[in-house]
Amino acid sequence: MVAAQIPVVSIRADCNAEIGYGHVMRCLAVAKALCRNGAVPVRFLMAQDSDIELVKTAGFEVLEILNGETDIEEILIHASPEDGPLLLDSYAFNAGYLEMLRQAGYRVAIFEDGNRLELYRCDMVVDSAPKADSLAYYGLPETRFYLGSDYFPLHPEFRNLAQPKAIHETPKTIVVTFGGSDNDDVTSRVLNAIADINGDFDTVTILGPAYSGQAEDVAENDLRVRLHRNVTSMAALLGSGDIAVSSGGNTASELAFLGIPMILLSLSPDQDRVAEALSNAGAAIYLGHHDQVGEATITETVGTLIDDHDQREKMSRAGLELIDGKGAERIADAILSLMMDTAGETA
């Protein structure tokens, strides 16, 4: 008798200084939900130049991809169509790649940040940006779309923080965070801008694993700056803020869930839509792409928000209404359903 094969979800995503850490971080949230909900084994397929230790430290197996980001032969080596679904998270995956995987018999889910492709030849598409459900996504008859902030994959540590956020009359802490790499060193520009504001507050600054900018130099001249590297308690640090100045990626949605009033600058085009949606919802002030925003504008905007308690209260309430924190579980349930469909077809 042949033993039944144990199903496994394979996640293909990378993280390094060049592409950032957002793709892998949201995949990790889903991976944790899969393990928690259905005790389903999860493994990551990652390029050799990725920060593989980040995923291993989270407790997941990593198989290294040797020959390029979208080399389908590598998928064939490490993950059989009979194993279980694939979850892909990279802008390098185009329509032709999805079609090749489909023809090879894989069940495929993909994270997206805007409808890049005219037609999604896969089984499920997740776009967790606010208002993503208003976009014109098209797929095959069997393609299922999971769109909008209901599907934002929040990490479980955030769910443990008390809400709603207390809005102090005078802010005590400003949080500054611009992702895992911040190649343009927006962090130090923002810190310089905040240094020009008089006030009795700390500036909690979160530096990502691949950050190599000048924040330390700014901290030497502004004793209010508190630098944090290799952060293991992101939720607690973000939650300590009365105001946040952040990029428009996943962190912005985490701040919304925590009810933190935020000022956003986008680092890449895919962040524009998230930042604009949060601004339109009243949860954020979006200043635009970072290279189009001067330090004087940042100084003025932060200073005005510090002085406007009523606006901060309104922004906090708006953020709390957007993200309910159950998105990772919803995505995991959809992947488990896909897995059961696959098992039924092969039974």
How would you summarize what this structure contains?
With 347 residues, the chain is α/β, with parallel strands linked by helices.
Structure, described:
This protein has 347 residues and is α/β, with parallel strands linked by helices. The chain folds into two domains: 9-154 and 325-346, 3-Layer(aba) Sandwich (Rossmann fold); 158-322, Glycogen Phosphorylase B (Rossmann fold, 3-Layer(aba) Sandwich). Helices cover 39% and strands 18% of the residues. It has 13 helices and 13 strands. The strands form two sheets. Strands 3-2-1-4-5-6-7 form a seven-stranded parallel beta sheet, sandwiched between helices. Helix 4 (95-103) links the parallel strand 4 (86-89) and strand 5. Helix 1 (22-38) crosses helix 13 (327-346) and helix 6 (186-195) runs parallel beside helix 7. The longest helix is centred in the last third of the chain and has 20 residues, at 327-346. The chain is globular. The two termini are 15 Å apart. The mean pLDDT is 91.
